[in-house]
TrEMBL record:
Record gene name: cdc6-1
CDD domains: AAA, Cdc6_C
Origin organism lineage: Archaea, Methanobacteriati, Methanobacteriota, Stenosarchaea group, Methanomicrobia
Polar residues bias locations: 1-17
Ranges of residues in domain AAA+ ATPase: 91-248
Residues annotated as binding ATP: T103, G104, K105, T106, A107, Y247, R259
Protein name: ORC1-type DNA replication protein
Role description: Involved in regulation of DNA replication.
Keywords: ATP-binding, DNA replication, Nucleotide-binding
Family classification: Belongs to the CDC6/cdc18 family.
Length: 452
């Protein structure tokens, strides 16, 4: 038997320098090397040997639309009853579709349009459905250019008068008898950003066309967006209105069950997983996209932890992760001035002040601006930024009446202070504020008063 009387430091040296190794050191070194080598050799074999949870991950992604949409039969029928006019060569009535995010508006319209176009083809009827996402294509010029290009007209990215682009589209469309259904998804964004000129023009287009016919479908998350419309546009566009209500927990459960049959291998979900994902998403305005995301992230988390079954605890962790990712994304993309306002609220919150008013936040904000040489906005502007943060769900600001002292906002953070602080300090402009304290001056004054 060999006695190992080297000290630990020498032992380390032996392991890293095999040429000088004593017999035992050399043996250990070889064993270590071989096992690590074989681990690396089997890198992919090892990963592949883990029993997979997913059968087809893609069906849980937003880009996938299933053939059948549970709990949307009523809306599917309502849309189909209006669009069937296109198969008779007539222009269907214009439709406005409302519903909160994730209520299946886009999926329903995609599914009905596909069936309509397939049948029109079989019946030899010229009918096209043109989907435009107004989040991306968001000005009158861009929309008209996009439509004209669809009919093979060349329109430059900018430079033409809008009338010319519109005429190009009308001419191309009116070459033959056909029906064009234009779907403007996220139409509320378009109106808020670029006004309603495009809607005014499109809603009157049938008067100028001889052969072709156009129908418009607007999809909106915001029920009140028609307040921004000219009354003529409002009545023409809203000939028909269809509402998509939020899903409740039972309905979300059915949607998840349907999708999970395709997405997962058999017996990989604990029975509580789908009801829990459905319950969480139902709390968040009945959003099917959120429910599907939560289920996918839960399974990915289980997979990463080398678990072969998705459990309740994975769902809870996934929910936290999604929320932190969401906050991170929103906070990271805020303009610097909003970040400073938010950082002021975080500082006040961390120092134990929980019922903040606009004045408190403004005082800290002003000081932070001076510390990093930023322009100081007026209190009025800062009040607007506070309202924006409220709308984004980062803070909660409620207006309270102070009797004869008027009204003020009571502001509270609705996201975890520490993770928000970290994301804010990632911004190089705010980094030097790392050690800022909200009440530094006040405390100094107080200390002076006490010692005097
Ligand atoms: N009834 C349903 N059955 C199956 N999947 C659904 C159903 N409703 C929505 N989904 C799925 O949920 C996700 C979100 O749906 P969709 O994009 O249609 O919502 P939306 O109302 O258009 O939301 P947004 O206003 O945010 O665009 C998609 O992946 C969609 O396939």
């Amino acid at each position: 038997m060999l006695i190992d009387n080297t000290n630990p430091q020498q032992k380390n040296d032996q392991q890293s320098k095999p040429a000088d190794a004593g017999q035992k050191g050399l043996f250990e070194y070889l064993v270590k090397e071989t096992s690590e080598d074989s681990k690396i050799d089997k890198l992919f074999e090892n990963l592949l040997s883990i029993k997979p949870i997913f059968a087809n991950r893609e069906v849980l992604r937003p880009s996938y639309t299933p053939d059948y949409l549970p709990h949307r039969l009523e809306q599917i029928n309502a849309v189909a009853e209006i669009l069937v006019a296109a198969l008779r060569g007539e222009a269907p009535s214009n439709i406005l579709i409302y519903g909160k995010t994730g209520t299946g508006k886009t999926a329903t319209l995609e599914s009905v349009s596909k069936k309509l176009v397939d049948l029109a083809e079989k019946m030899n009827i010229e009918c096209k459905v043109l989907f435009i996402n107004c989040e991306r294509i968001d000005t009158q010029y861009r929309i008209l250019a996009h439509l004209a290009r669809h009919y093979n007209r060349e329109v430059p990215i900018t430079g033409w008068p809008t009338d010319q682009v519109f005429n190009e589209f009308k001419e191309a469309l009116d070459k033959k008898e056909q029906v064009a259904i234009i779907i403007l998804d996220e139409i509320d964004n378009l109106v808020k950003k670029s006004g309603d000129d495009i809607l005014y023009n499109l809603s009157r287009i049938n008067g100028d066309l001889k052969k072709a016919k156009v129908s418009i479908i607007g999809i909106s998350n915001d029920l009140t967006f028609t307040d921004y419309l000219d009354p003529r546009v409002k009545s023409s566009l809203g000939e028909e209105e269809i509402i998509f209500p939020p899903y409740n927990a039972d309905q979300l459960r059915d949607i998840l069950e349907q999708r999970s049959k395709m997405a997962f291998k058999e017996n990989t979900l604990e029975p509580a997983v789908i009801p829990l994902c459905a319950a969480f998403a139902a709390q968040e305005h009945g959003d099917a996209r959120k429910a599907l995301d939560l289920l996918r992230v839960s399974a990915e988390l289980a997979e990463r932890l080398r678990d072969t079954v998705v459990r309740e605890e994975h769902v809870r962790k996934a929910r936290e992760k999604i929320e932190i990712d969401r906050i991170t994304e929103v906070v990271r993309t805020l303009p610097t001035q909003s970040k400073l306002v938010l950082y002021s609220i975080v500082l006040l919150d961390s120092s134990g002040s929980h019922e903040l008013n606009t004045g408190d936040v403004y005082n800290v904000y002003r000081r932070l601006c001076r510390m990093i040489d930023m322009d100081v906005l007026t209190q009025r502007r800062v009040t607007d930024l506070i309202s924006e943060l409220d709308m984004l769900g980062i803070i909660n600001a409620i207006v309270v009446s102070k009797g004869r002292y008027g009204r003020t906002k009571e502001i509270a953070l609705s996201v975890p202070a520490e993770s928000t602080r970290k994301v804010l300090l990632d911004d190089y402009r705010l980094r030097t504020l790392k050690d800022a304290r909200p009440y530094f001056e006040a405390q100094q004054r107080l200390a002076k008063d006490i010692s005097a």
